[in-house]
């Protein structure tokens, strides 16, 4: 009975095996059958008995961390070895051999090798890349294997394609890497000197060129400091000379060739021609100007002519004067001579270095360790401003037009405040016009009762005055003053300065306005004007609720008396009083008597007392407005008639038929007393 096909029950090694191919040992080369390889594995790729695998790539020891492939772990990591090669020379006159130096690079990512020969001047041999990057096989009999990292060490011989290279040293990275993988490094060796290059160097030292040559190597400085420029802000004070002034300059020092360039900062309206450069880029001598030099006198080399005599086949030569006798030495400015506060000589002009940019500060801090970069003010003090005076107003046209004719050769019209006009012009239901109801202050009996509407337009600060038409008054109403800006009184007419005009801030209820010699008392305003002034209380302080409450708080000592007055006026105890009652003003009887005496009222004491008693209430208080209106014989020609006051009620009736602008009918006096004096209801 056969055992079931389960793991552990079968001894057949082919169970689970999928590959049964045979390795190809025979092949064709140039159409000739031959044995290709003897080291190929057996059936299915398994090793034959006694056969060992040869590693294709370098095997590195296992370390801690992730097992990344070599082409990832050793990407861009290269081992560098210094080697030389003894090359036999066919021409025995130049020596038996040549020493050629090489650089061997081993790339760890794929075990490729590259061999380069550094170029030597006048070596007489082609140099550069000797072996391109590739995997190099071992010398016979192991030519089927390739070089790995374990085949390299210091002071050993290594063979590449039949040429023996002697490795005598390597760089620091290579030494550290070989030590980490367990390679014991040999002591470094020395590369022998090439006999041909030694002979050639000795020959060159003894030879003198027919044309003298002295090299000045400035390429390193150029490559290191190209496009790196130091910038200083300078000042040339030439104010001591005639028509001289302070000139602001910018100095550029080019680190690539130690040249200096100076530019001038031209202020606006300086009166000087704009030049591209104040000093063209060149080396700047410290002690210039040195004077006029002959052509060829200032040179880097001194060349002497050698006279060959009067022979027919004479030979003339040139000799470089190594002692440099008669050479004109010039000392030029270097970067070490430039710092903030230094004064340099720019061809006879003393230029003060006042400041520098951030790159210059970093350069000096890194190279010279300078930390103090306190700048020196180079700006000239401002010139005294000359006040421009204009001739007085001539009387023709407006003051603004006359002023514009004095500013330029071609008179231009006066520019209005267009922004203010667009913001304050009327649009929709917003008129941006303040309207006040006023009366004329005059001693003429015929003009006392005249009423006017004063309109102030916020868009251009103009004023118009209109008189409502009243039938059978004997006065033609209508336009009293067309729309125009009104000057403040008391100003000189023919003067150089512009006149001041009436502003919106000067208009409020109770104010007196002088319009071209006519005095108007502002009695009332429409609803839009009142709302506008309360909204812009910073412009109209007389409409500020905070200011009114502040004035009331100053009378805190009379808070109890004020509360009693409101309580007495509130007969029904509704905590509300009528608006007209709230507006009434009362004074003690003795104060009214003192006022009448001070104004020398032509009444005896008995008659005055009798009149005052008719206006007194139970607390000896008198409404002074009603009292003085009753004394006005023009308003009250008959004693028995009730006085007619210019109160808000009449103003509302005379306001061109408009509805009453006062929406308030009652005043909550308890809330007012609480906000002002903090009194609570008892």
UniProtKB/TrEMBL annotation:
<dbReference type="InterPro" id="IPR040193">
    <property type="entry name" value="EFHC1/EFHC2/EFHB"/>
</dbReference>
<keyword id="KW-0969">Cilium</keyword>
<comment type="function">
    <text>Microtubule inner protein (MIP) part of the dynein-decorated doublet microtubules (DMTs) in cilia axoneme, which is required for motile cilia beating.</text>
</comment>
<dbReference type="InterPro" id="IPR011992">
    <property type="entry name" value="EF-hand-dom_pair"/>
</dbReference>
<dbReference type="Pfam" id="PF06565">
    <property type="entry name" value="DM10_dom"/>
</dbReference>
<feature type="domain" description="DM10">
    <location>
        <begin position="75"/>
        <end position="182"/>
    </location>
</feature>
<keyword id="KW-0966">Cell projection</keyword>
<protein>
    <recommendedName>
        <fullName>EF-hand domain-containing family member C2</fullName>
    </recommendedName>
</protein>
<keyword id="KW-0206">Cytoskeleton</keyword>
<feature type="domain" description="DM10">
    <location>
        <begin position="430"/>
        <end position="537"/>
    </location>
</feature>
<dbReference type="GO" id="GO:0005879">
    <property type="term" value="C:axonemal microtubule"/>
</dbReference>
<keyword id="KW-0282">Flagellum</keyword>
<keyword id="KW-0963">Cytoplasm</keyword>
<feature type="domain" description="DM10">
    <location>
        <begin position="226"/>
        <end position="368"/>
    </location>
</feature>
<keyword id="KW-0677">Repeat</keyword>
<dbReference type="InterPro" id="IPR006602">
    <property type="entry name" value="DM10_dom"/>
</dbReference>
């Amino acid at each position: 009975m056969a055992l079931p096909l389960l793991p552990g029950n079968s001894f057949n090694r082919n169970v689970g095996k999928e590959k049964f191919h045979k390795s190809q040992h025979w092949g064709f080369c140039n159409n000739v059958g031959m044995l290709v390889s003897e080291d190929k594995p057996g059936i299915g790729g398994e090793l034959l008995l006694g056969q060992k695998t040869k590693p294709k790539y370098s095997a590195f020891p296992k370390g801690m961390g992730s097992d990344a492939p070599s082409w990832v772990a050793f990407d861009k990591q290269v081992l560098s070895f210094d080697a030389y090669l003894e090359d036999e020379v066919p021409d025995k006159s130049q020596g038996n051999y040549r020493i050629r130096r090489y650089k061997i690079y081993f790339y760890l990512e794929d075990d490729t090798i590259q061999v380069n020969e550094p170029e030597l001047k006048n070596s007489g041999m082609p140099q550069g890349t000797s072996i391109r990057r590739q995997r190099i096989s071992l010398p016979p009999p192991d030519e089927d294997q390739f070089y790995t990292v374990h085949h390299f060490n210091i002071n050993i011989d290594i063979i590449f394609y039949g040429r023996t290279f002697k490795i005598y040293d390597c760089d620091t990275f290579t030494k550290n890497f070989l030590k980490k993988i367990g390679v014991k490094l040999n002591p470094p060796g020395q590369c022998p000197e090439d006999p041909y290059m030694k002979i050639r160097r000795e020959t060159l030292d003894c030879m003198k060129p027919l044309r003298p040559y002295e090299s000045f190597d400035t390429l390193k400085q150029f490559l290191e400091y190209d496009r790196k420029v130091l910038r200083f802000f300078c000042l040339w004070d030439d104010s001591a000379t005639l028509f001289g002034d302070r000139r602001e300059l910018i100095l550029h020092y080019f680190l690539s060739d130690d040249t200096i360039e100076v530019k001038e900062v031209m202020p606006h309206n300086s009166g000087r021609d704009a030049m591209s450069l104040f000093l063209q880029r060149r080396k700047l001598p410290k002690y210039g100007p040195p004077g006029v030099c002959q052509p060829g006198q200032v040179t880097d080399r001194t060349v002497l002519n050698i006279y060959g005599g009067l022979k027919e086949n004479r030979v003339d030569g040139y000799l470089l004067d190594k002692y440099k006798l008669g050479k004109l030495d010039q000392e030029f400015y270097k970067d070490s001579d430039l710092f903030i506060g230094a004064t340099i000589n720019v061809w006879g002009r003393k230029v003060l270095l006042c400041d520098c940019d951030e790159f210059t500060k970093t350069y000096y801090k890194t190279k010279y360790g300078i930390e103090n970069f306190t700048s020196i003010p180079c700006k000239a003090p401002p010139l005294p401003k000359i006040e421009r005076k204009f001739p007085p107003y001539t009387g023709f046209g407006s003051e603004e037009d006359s002023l514009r004719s004095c500013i330029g050769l071609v008179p231009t019209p006066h520019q209005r405040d267009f922004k203010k006009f667009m913001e304050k012009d009327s649009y929709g239901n917003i008129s941006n016009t303040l309207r006040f109801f006023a009366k004329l202050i005059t001693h003429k009996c015929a003009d006392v009762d005249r009423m006017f509407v004063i309109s102030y337009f916020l868009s251009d600060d103009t004023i118009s005055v209109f008189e409502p038409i009243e039938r059978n008054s004997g006065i033609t109403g209508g336009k009293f003053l067309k729309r125009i800006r009104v000057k403040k009184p008391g100003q000189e007419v023919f003067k150089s300065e512009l006149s001041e005009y009436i502003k919106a801030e000067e208009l409020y209820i109770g104010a007196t306005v002088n319009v071209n010699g006519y005095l108007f008392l502002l009695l009332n305003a429409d609803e839009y004007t009142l709302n506008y002034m309360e909204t812009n209380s910073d412009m109209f302080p007389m409409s500020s609720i905070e200011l009114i409450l502040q004035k009331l708080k100053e009378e805190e000592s009379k808070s109890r008396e004020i509360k009693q007055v409101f309580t007495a006026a509130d007969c029904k105890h509704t905590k509300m009083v009528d608006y007209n009652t709230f507006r009434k003003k009362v004074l003690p009887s003795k104060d009214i008597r003192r006022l009448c005496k001070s104004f020398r009222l032509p009444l005896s004491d008995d008659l005055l007392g009798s009149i005052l008693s008719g206006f007194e209430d139970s607390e000896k208080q008198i409404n002074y407005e009603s009292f003085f209106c009753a004394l006005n014989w023009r308003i009250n020609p008959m004693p028995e008639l009730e006085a007619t006051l210019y109160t808000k009620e009449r103003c509302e009736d005379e306001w061109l038929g408009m509805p009453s602008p006062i929406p308030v009918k009652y005043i909550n006096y308890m809330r007012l007393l609480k906000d002002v004096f903090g009194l609570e209801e008892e």
